[in-house]
Amino acid sequence: MLGSTHGTLTTDSRRARVVACGGQRPGPAVHDRVEDLDVSGRPLHADVPDLTRFFRPESVAVIGASDAEGRPNTGITRQLLDWAGRVGARVHPVHPTRPSVFGLPCVTSVAGLPEQVDLAVLLVADPLPVIGELAEAKARFAVAFASGFAETGPAGAEAQERLAEAVRRSGLRLLGPNTNLNAFERFREDLPGPAIALITQSGHQGRPVFALQELGIRLSHWAPTGNEADLETADFLSWFAEQPEVGAIAAYVEGLKDGRAFLLAADRAARRGVPVVAVKVGRTEAGARTAASHTGKLTGADDVVDAAMRQYGVIRVDALDELQDTAALLARARPPLADGVVVCSISGGTGAHVADLATGAGLRLPRLSPAKQAELHQWIPEYLSVANPVDNGGHPVGDRRGRKIIDAVLADPDVGVLLCPVTGPFPPLSDRLVRDLVEAAEETDKLVCVVWGSPAGTEPAYREVLLGSSRVATFRTVGNCLTAVRAWLDHHRFVGDYRSPFDDAPRTLSPSFRKAEALLQPGRQLSEHAAKQLLRAYGIRVPREQLVTSAAAAVRAAGQVGYPVVMKASGAQIAHKTELGLVKIGLTSASQVRDAYRELTDIARYEGVGLDGVLVCQMVEQGVEMVVGVGHDDLFGPTVTVGLGGVLVEVLRDVAVRVPPFGEDQARAMLGELRGRALLDGVRGRPPADADALVEVVLRVQRMSMELGGRIAELDINPLMVLPRGQGAVALDALVVCR
């Protein structure tokens, strides 16, 4: 199979713990629901539907069933009958005029069904009228294949909303509309080990992952969610995370129906250590437009989607072959014993090339110790480098020395991954090499990866030996191998330290809320003075300042604030004071203050800008200018941003974003994502900035966003001057737009 192939790997220790618990993962039951809300009134726990009877029904109604040759419904009915036979379900065809379908007695309507059905499959152009009938019959689940809904535009979206409302009233759960038969595919039942559960919003895009079964990799479920009028990606993600046979969840996502539901589902998977790998369409404007036309959902600002996935350990990849390789490795590989990667090759050029790529991918390639290098030189000529990468020269892998080299590398406690690139078949050396790798992998708990570079992929060493191994992870490209290994290491680091941010999310309003609430002006932008009062209510430091309405008062204020001072016009509709000349800095005397007051008020009068006064502010000079802000995303709600501030925010756009709730670890991780992070550490003799104070401001702004998020459309603290270490941070300017 071109682009991605694997061997199978044994069950990881997380699954072993499941077996020790009698086949059930520790934690809440599959169908639990905890009514627990944060301060914004949003849920803190996933509502997980019990989908057992969807995937394993005891009774199925096929509405619109047919056995007439040449009819589209006939092929679908035949596939459903085959599937029902495999899962042991009773089938009841429903058709208004046919006495039987494929030999099964047919009822004329849903009302004539002989029993309550677990699943109703709707082979009708308009599913809406059938939903009420199914509600009367107390059906549990339904699938609607019909298209022509939200994917077609506003009229279709209205039709889909009518369908969704009917489903909400009915009490049943609906898959679709605009879905397909992928949930009823034939899954191989002879494959061992943990399985991949698959979620797709486009059935065709799931085919490469489904085809992994041809390489011995097990799939347990496939949920083709379609337009998600009711059941959505988050529902299947939450339920799959509870299933003991699922080792990883792979998803192809075009748009998210509910951002919060997705995060809660990802949180449930993270709590259970179940890796989630996703392709999310929408990195480009063109991709976002196409996704919207396909599924009729919002795609969300991609940087927010990316950050949200990262917060909850969802591994985002770009291509379907990466989805295959990464999901397969994460489903099958045991947890790492070390994070060191050693590249072992028969060619110095190959080893150097792969080592460069691995380092660029963020993997750690430890230099082997002098003692280990001396050990390897027992079997490898002295003139070859074995520090890492290990160049074995080729000939040693053709005899007993090859296995000794492999075992020696794997015995190093700093090594967790042995990566062997085989750029092309070269029998008999390559045959002996892969046999040694497979045998060594059977005797170690460390990860052995082979990249088989032959474009043919028909060689026995590959098809029979490597793919026949339950322990070697086999790839067809170096890039996919490195992506998968990095994701595997990152996942286990993440779940090892994971603490759900929902556990610590505030449930009650802070005392700051009432003070802040009184300052808000619905539908208006606050003046800088009012915006800073809002910040002060949440414990965010602002400069010493006074709001004055006369030149004399300005002089008195400057004396109390302390020279030098900054003077600014303050008004509810002033967004860019500097561009209008409404800021004066470095004023050192009473005469300068008087002149500045007159000039500021004259400019405001000329520009037609209303003022509530002039601010006389403490001048704060030494520090790093940052920006901290709150925005609103259509999918996830309030978001918090931090980045380089001042004019650099518009020039460099060096920012990191998170979706509340998040803890101190994520706030610090935001700083680590900035390209300009070194400015906080101190450059060119400047002292390190107070990063702890910056983190504290980010967390306080997050609390504000959660408590006031529904009332604030935008908040920007720019610049936030981060002073030298131990001296704090000061919000020099702020803009707040109320809803």
UniProtKB/TrEMBL annotation:
PROSITE patterns: ATP_GRASP (PS50975). Pfam families: ATP-grasp_5, CoA_binding_2, Succ_CoA_lig. One of its GO terms (molecular function) is ligase activity. Residues 532-570 form the ATP-grasp domain. SUPFAM superfamilies: Glutathione synthetase ATP-binding domain-like, NAD(P)-binding Rossmann-fold domains, Succinyl-CoA synthetase domains. Keywords: ATP-binding, Ligase, Nucleotide-binding. It comes from the Bacteria. This is Acetate--CoA ligase family protein. It comes from Streptomyces rameus.
